[in-house]
Request: fold
Amino acid sequence: MALLKIGEGLTAFHSRDPVKGKLKIIATPEDIGGLNSTEGENKIVLVNVAGVAGLMVPLLKAAGIICTRGGIASHLAILAREFRRPCIMGASIDSLKGLEGKNAVMDVSGPTGLVFLEET
Amino acid sequence: MAISLDEANSLIARFGELAKDLISKRTLLESYVFPVRTYISVGLYNLYETAYPSFKKLSDHIKPEELGTEGQKLCSKINQKTHFSIMLGYLVGREQVIMDGDLSEPDALSEDREKLLFLLDLWRRMVSTYRRGAPLFVADTDGVLRIFSEELLSELKEQLSPADDQKRESLRRMLALIQSYLFLVNCESRGNIFAHGPYPAAKSEERSIVFREFSNLKSGPLSQYVEDNPPWPNLAVALELEGIHVRIDEVGTVYTFPENYTSGICSFGLFTTKRGKISSLDPREIDDLIDFAKRAQVSLFAKVMKLDRHSRTLAGALQYSSLAPYFEAGGLRGNSPSLTERCIARYLPRMLEIDTHPFMQRFSSQEKLLSPMS
Reply:
């Protein structure tokens, strides 16, 4: 299976192994409110705000977290480390459009975290 | 005045450098739930108006050095994070006023200088005692922040218990969930989350002890929406770590290297305080706190989502400019000011309209952050 790189950022919590999952995008407070207790399970959650208020469910359940903003001292990065969720902060991803539900892979083995889409 | 103009301006410059450094590692605060930039500016306008009369009143009751000593207690609500944030907040509030053009007349400038010299002098004396004579900023002590006396440290060390895998996992889960809850109840601010250390451990140079403190588990403007009560009013977690390098920043964030510190926990202790008395907690009670943290944030989130932007901004501004912990430490509980009339009538509506104060752009520019006094 081919991998297409779609972005990179700072690794805030490392994993030796690649992290795989379907992308779940959270772009509004309503997206958080719409999450049920298992939503996000084994998914890679992609957020565009580096805060954490209301994000308990994805932090508990997600396979990994990607944030298009922030850095290693952001609240999201702090909690990703506490929840031990592989995490990339300040990820430069051109557009979130069309990414929902796509199979993705995070490489967070080094200081720069890489984001790929699986191409079938 | 005990602090000279040059000394004061050096402190202002250092605050500016450190604030820029902190923001470069995280960007400005933001949130899905709270209008953080809006409420921060309102809160900091408020702090610029309330800090001087508040600390003037407090200084009639308690010396700055005594406030410093109060902060050295386990689970103190005043600490390096609050000391740093209150002074920086005042300075940023001042910059907003300068940028608004409201601090240019000779009388206003003279009053500003008098207040700022008083506050910086008080701050320096308070923090110098708090840090037991160490440099005033954690960045100047290589990320090490030691505030406990030898006696207190020994007393707490004696009560540490060995950790096994199950306890390590419970601790990690509890620390994650309690912080997640506190970020929500404190309007996305760091609120009552604080860490200090590393302290040397007795058994080996490879070991050190870090304290994770949660100084109030139910406080702030949003706590009225938390139905449950936490099992204890506050919590301190002592972690003895082996093979883990620990660093603390100016606002009490703990960084560990490697970042996954759980397997390095060799012993731990759980403590709470009530009226100054320290009690050791049974590790079996961890699950009670985990349950509380999960339940509380699910119901609180639903309630906060029903609040309008005005109410969320107001709650955040109150949270961000609260001086209640200082009044409590000074024996004047209940005297902490709320938002001033000018804040409510002028700054709150203006910030709700413009969302982000233009000063905030200076965090990402090359420009010097804070203005010296002339």
